Amino acid sequence: MNPTIVLVHGAFAESASWDPVIERLLDADQSVIAAANPLRGLASDAESVSDLVRSIDGPVLLVGHSYGGAVITNVDADAGEITGLVYVAAFAPDTGESANTLARKFPGSSLGDALRPVPRTDGTTDLAIAPELFHEQFAADVPAAETARMAVTQRPATLEALEEPCGDSPLWKQVPSWFLVASEDRNIPAELQRFFAERADARRTVEIAASHAAAVSNPETTAELILEAAAVQVPA
Question: Most buried by CB count within 10 Å: which residue of 25, 55, 122, 232?
Fold first, then answer.
């Protein structure tokens, strides 16, 4: 039985950012759900995806982009029959690590200078990429007209979510993982992405010359890696 593929977007994006990949997965007769990631807090975001997984009959393959990788890492292992994890230019933290601390582990991220804060009445702070910087920062290999729309529809993440540490049971230690490394990423340095893949003992790592928006600029390669992971039958 093929798994249901659950796609989890990251910060400064939304579920439609998976559209080019979804098209290819549907063409391959896969069952797909693009989850709405709240981007409010790591534990609560992971619980939201865990709840979605609990509603699915049969096996599930989790796919995360960017901060969405941290979210799938923290999904409850008992939420369902999770067969694997696919990280697309994504964080794969270990216990106690946050997205913000990891982003500084290796040089190359210019994200901090591109962010604009919006203080909220609940005491948290929303972060979004300045629209005029979005193309170069997030999706330099995507046509400017498309990135202009992406900048307008981006969903902010809270500073608190990006600073919240990973929980005690990172899922990549329990199930197989696959990694797509974007070598031209200005959000998550490629060296950091390679570090994640090696640490997780990834089943396979594919590296491409792509921006952080690798799923948008290279949907074919992204979909192929997801389909490869979906085809693997993991023993119970």
Answer: 25
The total number of residues written for the chain in this structure = 236
C-alpha span between 102 and 62 (Å, rounded) = 21
- 193: nearest Cα among 42, 206, 203: 206
Instruction: Judge whether 38 and 161 are in contact, CB under 8 Å.
Output: no
**CATH class of the 4-111+156-231 domain in this structure:** alpha beta
Give me the torsion for CA of 134, 23, 99, 196, rounded to 10°. Answer: -120
- Per residue in 45-72, pLDDT tens? 999 999 999 999 999 999 999 999 999 9
Q: Where are the domains of the chain?
A: 4-111+156-231
Q: What's residue 36's pLDDT?
A: 96
**At which residue do the structure tokens 């921006």 appear?**
211
H or E element at residue 218:
none
The closest alpha carbon to 87, from 104, 106, 70, 111, belongs to 70
Residue 179's alpha-carbon distances to 133, 160, 192, in angstroms, are: 27, 26, 12
